[in-house]
Amino acid sequence: MGEHHPESPERLAAINDRLIAAGLDMYLSFHDAPLATVEQLSRAHPREHVEEILASVPESGIRHLDPDTAMSPGTMKAALRSAGAGVLATDLVLSGEVENAFCAIRPPGHHAEAAKAMGFCFFNNVAVAARHALEEHGLKRIAVVDFDVHHGNGTEDIFKDDPRVLMVSIFQHPFYPYSGADNPAPNMVNVPIKAGSRGDVFREIVTDIWMPALRNHAPEMIFISAGFDAHYEDDMGSLGLVEADYMWATEQLKKVAAESSGRRIVSMLEGGYSLSSLARSVVAHIKTLADL
Known about the structure:
- One of its GO terms (molecular function) is histone deacetylase activity.
- By secondary structure, the protein is of the alpha/beta class.
- Helix content is 39%, strand content 13%.
């Protein structure tokens, strides 16, 4: 997205380096993300919007869709693979080949609304994956869990009228994108939290609000919008989570998955811009998913 932009390729390099340094790479299976198709993207976005985004890629230089969200000539290939990763992960999990999957992807997706790219996001990766599970695999109930520091306005926009989908989330408020706190749809369990909140507040919300809602919905599969910018080292936000909080939350979600989802989880990277805390948090999350 241009020099000095926080949503940079170095984010994935930091995660890969940390996986290797932690010795986890030998315990995991790796898959290359395919390019998502227009048909797959159109389950979450109007086809004409998808085609408009695809036609917006510059031949050279940088093109801004908004002040935060920019395209280079290679952006669309990355965006299509980000969405395609979730589709492949869903197929792998639902086929029984793997119990769960983490998609180390960029650009992120949870700010992308049905007909609007914004907030570093072009296509809503987790929504594309979730709709694939619902429409292609015939699941009846799924859950989307979002612990990014920013509200997943795009995911809410896409699923607010879909009773098959329960979304539970926390986000710093008031904060970009200044949404989520007022009159959410019945299937949206949004919990805004104030700047400076730490892990104890987050854990109380998960225990008292998220877990009862998730168990009541009994999802057949859980999708995680895994943003790690609520970490106390990440200056993109002002929350105070640490790796232990992400591990604990992942353990709680695994409990729900074991109860109703056949242990099926697909987790997809969203935010996280301090390279060290991002890499450490992702590794902690993956270790917990993999029971390592």
